[in-house]
Amino acid sequence: MKLLHIVGESKFGGGSVVIVELARMARDLGWDVEVLTTDSQLIGVLEEQGIGVVYLDAIWRDIRPMKDLRGLWRLYRFLRSNPYTLVHTHTSKAGFVGRLAARMAGIPVIVHTVHGFAFHEQSRPFALRSYARLERLAAHWCHRIFTVSEFHRRWGLELGIGNERKMVAIANGISPDRVMQTCSRDEIRTKLGAKPDDFVVLSIGRLADGKGLDDLLAAAASARKTVGHLKVWLAGTGPQQTVLEELAKAPQLERAVQFLGFRDDPGNLLAASDLVALPSLREGLSIALLEAMAMEKAIVATTIGSNREVTRDGEAALLVAPRDRDALAAAMVRLAGDPHYAKALGEKAGSIYRSGYTNRIMLDHYRSEYEKVLSESLPVVPADTHDPFGKRALDILLSGTALLIFSPVLAILAIAVRMSSPGPALFRQERLGRSGRLFTLYKFRTMACGAPDIRNADGSAFSSSDDPRVTRLGAFLRASSLDELPQLFNVFKGDMSLVGPRPELPDQIRFYSESDKRRLCVRPGLTGLAQISGRNEIPWERRRQLDVEYVERRTLPLDVSLLFQTVSFVLRRQGINTNRQKESSL
What we know:
CATH architecture of the largest domain: 3-Layer(aba) Sandwich
CATH class of the largest domain: Alpha Beta
Distance between the termini: 34 Å
CATH superfamily of the largest domain: Glycogen Phosphorylase B
Radius of gyration: 29 Å
Number of domains: 3
Shape: elongated
C-alpha cells in the first residue's frame, strides 16, 4: 500500500494534527505513507515523526486560475509517475486540485476530508451557492468524503454534495497524551507572570480571521469591569496578530493580554488557565475544543454547528452566538464567579471527550473506512487492457455523435420524467465497472422515488410488465429502451463501452462463480451478446455465461455486428421483462 496525503500550502492548525495522526496510523499498518505539504511547521512535525514528505510546490491558498492550472498539471505529472494506491486530500483548495489531479492520473482510490467547508454558517448566499457547486463537482472525483462532524455531513447532503453512501462523518479525536502536563499549574503561571488570584482566560489556535479573537478582546475589556483580575492568554501565531496586538493596547486591557506565540505544550497552558474561550465564527471540529474537554476545563464557545454537536447543545460548555460580545463577556463573568458551575461543566466535557472524541475512536473509524473503500475500488480481477484495435475510438465517435443528435430528445425526456412523477429526471446508481471498480451509472428514472429494490432468489433484478414500482411513462421508456440513453455519457466518459457485459450491482458479485468474474475484465456495455440472445427472458446465469463468451471472442467486427443486431432487437421490444415471477426480496 502506498498512500499520499495532499495538503499543499495550508498552514499548521487543527487539521494538521489529524493528518499527522492518520499518517502515523498508516505507517504503523506497514503502509508506505507520505504527505505533500509546503508548510514548514508541518514539515518539521512530520520529519520528527519519521513520516515522508513530498516537497512539491503545486497547491497555493490564493485562487489564481493560471497559476493553479500549472500547479494542477505539475501535480498530475507527479501522480502519474508515482504509483500511489490511495490519495487522501485535505482542505478546500487542496481537496479540489488534488482530487482532480488524482482522478486524471488514474489513482485507484481517492478520498477527501472536509476539515471545514470553504463556506460557513455566516457566508452570504451567493458565496455559499458558488462554493457548494464546486464541492458538488469535486465530489464526482473521489470515492469517499469524510466530514469531521455529523453537522457538516448533514449540511453537505442538504446541499447535494455527495450522497448518503459517499459522505461519512468521522469526528476528530485527540490522544490524551496531547494534553499531558510536564509542569505544575503554579510553575506555568509563574513563568507567564500570572498572579495566584488572576482569572486566566485561554484561547489556543491560529490568530486568523474567523477565529473571533477581536470579539474575545472586546468582551474581555467589558468583563474586566466586574472581574478586575481577568487575564487573557492567546496561544498561536497568524496573520491577525498585528491587528490583535493593537486592540490589546486599549486602556481597559492594559497589561491584561499576553501573546504566547506558537506552543507545543497545550496541556501545560490548559492546566494553568481557568477558562477556555473559543469565539470562532467557523470551524470544522475544533482540536482546541477537544483539548479543553480532555483537560476538563470550563469552556465558553460559539453556537456554530460543530460546537453544538460536541458539547451536546451546551451541556458541556456555555454557548454564545457568534459576534455577541455582550453574551461572551457575561459568560466569562458568570464562570469567574461560580467555580462550582465551571467545575461541573468541565467534568461533563471530560466525560463526552472520553466517550466519543479520542484519537483511538477516530483512527479506528478511518481504518475501517479505508478498508471498505479499498475493497470496493481496487480490482476484483485484473483489467484486460488489450481492447480490439479501434474499440475505444468507436465508442467516443458514436457516443459523442449520438449525444449531439439526441440532445433535444434527452432534454424532452428529462422534462417529461420530472413532470410525470415527483423526483429527479435521472436515476443514478453505483455499478461494477472494469476490474470491478465502481462507477455511477445514469438512466432516466422509470420508478417512483423510494421504490424498494426487489430481487429474484438467484440475486438477479426483478423485472415484470406489471411491476407496480414502474410509472406509466417509465413503462414506455423501458419498452422502447429510451431509459438507457443517458448511458451514452458513461460511454463517452470511459466508464462503459457501447458493447460489453451489462453493468451489475456491487452486491451481485457474491453470486458469481470464478469463471463469471471474467466478465469484469472489460468495460461494461450498453448492449452485448446476452442482450441480443434474449436479454431478461433468459436466466441470469446464462446471461453471465454469454458475457464471458463475449469477453473471449471480442473483436471490432463482432462489436459492429452486435450493434446492428441490437437495433433490430430494440425495435421489436424483445426481452424487456422476465417471464419468471419474483421469488424473494433482498
